[in-house]
Structure prediction request, 244 residues.
Amino acid sequence: MAEGYIAFFDSGIGGLHLLSEFHRRCPWQPSIYFGDNENAPYGGRGEDEILRLARAAFEKICRFPVRAAVIACNTVTAECVDILRREHDFPIVGIEPAVRPAVRFVREGDILLLATRATLASARVRKLVSGIGGRSAIIPYCPANLAGDIEKAAPDFSGLDVGACLPQGKFAAAVLGCTHYIFLASQIARRLNCPVFDGVAGTVDYLLQIANICSKNPPKIDKISPIFIGNSKNKNRMLFEELF
Prediction:
């Protein structure tokens, strides 16, 4: 077992998807989850405020011995992952919209990119989209207040009206550029009548690579439950245990 924790940071509950995928593959590896639920969502905030909140989160995360960290929030990745990498001496992985896998999948037709205002406005995501080749057009769209509504509704999302949040039109695929949206992935896929893509599996793949964690031959030890910290640690722990 490697020394140090793998830390996961999100503005709220969205990053629990990455924590779950990592824990499924590496249940013996100690992990931390910091959710800043009281300040969620980040997507409507300015760049300076997002950076301030992210730095405050990392200050608390760094009270633990950290082996690597995952920014499980597309908005934080888009706005300030490079700054955070310069400020810390451990690897930091950031999640990004899974535009490339969607482009590889689609033979023809437009691809809908669903993300928060801050994510779509960031130079990082605009560069990502502009650098994509292929025959498909990437259509950016911000579902107003959807991330915040998901955060508030947890753990019961049945009352959310997905259709009211989505644009009209026919799309060959949709990319979920906010980890909160993944809680409604099935509903979004049905409403749009197309496959949806997210960056969870690819982010964990990269994490295992850079943190030098081998999941093919797990050690014969008991599973280690994640440690939850932050202003809503009990909420995040209960949701993780209930849904994952």
